Amino acid sequence: VYVPLVITQTLEAIAGFGSSCVEDAVLVPLELVNFTGVKSFVVTLHYNPNIVMCDGYVELNPQLDLGDFQATVQQAIGEIKLNWQGQVPVTLANLAQMLRLKYDGLGEGISPINWEAAPGESHFYDENLQEISAAYTTGEIQVFSQPEIQMQSTESVCVGDALTIEPIITGGNGQKDYTWSGPNGFSSDDTLLNFDPVTSSQAGSYILSVEDAMKCKKSTAVELIVMESPTIAFSGYDTLFVEPGYLLDAGHDAQHYLWNTGATTEQISIDTTGLYSVEATSGQGCKSADAVYIL
């Protein structure tokens, strides 16, 4: 009696690997081996919902796209169910891509991508609705932490003063690179941002980007507000020749005045020769000082 030898091959469903940063996206391929004469399938995969969030899929294999394909995500339990019903049996080349699952990083850690192989969960069928033997390979996503930047969103400074902006960087992975960008084409790769002295043209928004060894990147901005100091009316004069009773005027830009005579008014009456100086302070605390000889 001749008994024909029937050779059956096990279909292999393989989840791939990926890495991402917190708040960034990652694509994980699902590949197939010995996908021969398949008419339909329903498969379930699980992941850690505390580490990643599934945002559906992309790049469905064109031959599978000809059939009826559905993907259902239950983020609360970390599950995605894939259901396909073909119009005709489909055979794919080995290591053909079924699709790529799209995930977003939620927290630092490793999330396995497990096929659910328990009874009633994952099945592949031929055109006669006979179940095809299948083996499943687990994948994995590693999510890395991002650098965190602590920095004031606004810094106010007076013209002519010095200012150093020193952000505090925590988290991230390994060595970090810093890139500042700002007004008028400003750029720097220093950790700190130094202004000495500050000028009006430096006002504006400065963006700090920090990238770590795993290419995880975080950016934040600080707005530099540059405040003008008061203008003193006799600025530019070293000496004035005036008559007794002359009113020496410091100007009207400041909120507070302090003369070397002890006066705190905008104007003082001159009755003797000598050196007169004044310090003027604006409402924002910016100061100007100047002096003049009266002869």
Give the helices and strands, then pairings.
Blueprint lengths: L10 E5 L1 E5 L3 E9 L4 E9 L5 E7 L3 H4 L2 E7 L4 E12 L5 E10 L3 E7 L7 E3 L8 E4 L1 E6 L2 E4 L3 E5 L4 E3 L2 E4 L5 E5 L5 E2 L4 E3 L8 E8 L5 E11 L11 E2 L5 E4 L6 E4 L7 E4 L3 E8 L5 E8 L1
Parallel strand pairs: 1-11, 2-12, 14-21, 22-27
Antiparallel strand pairs: 1-3, 3-8, 4-7, 4-9, 4-10, 5-8, 6-7, 9-12, 13-16, 15-19, 17-18, 17-20, 20-21, 23-25, 24-26, 26-27
Describe this protein's structure.
This protein has 295 residues and is an all-beta fold. 1% of the residues lie in helices and 54% in strands. It is built from one helix and 27 strands. The longest helix is centred in the N-terminal third of the chain and has 4 residues, at 62-65. The protein is rod-shaped and about 115 Å long.
Derived structural class: mainly beta
Mean pLDDT: 94
Task: Please report the total strand number as a whole number.
Answer: 27
Number of helices: 1
* Order of H and E elements: EEEEEHEEEEEEEEEEEEEEEEEEEEEE
Distance between the termini: 135 Å
Low-pLDDT ranges: 3-7
Sheet with the most strands? Answer: 7 strands, mixed
Strand content: over 45%
The percentage helix is under 10%
Q: Roughly how many Å is the radius of gyration?
A: 36 Å
What is the 3D form? rod-shaped
Short description:
This protein is mainly beta and 295 residues long.
What are the key terms here?
295 residues; 1 helix; 54% strand
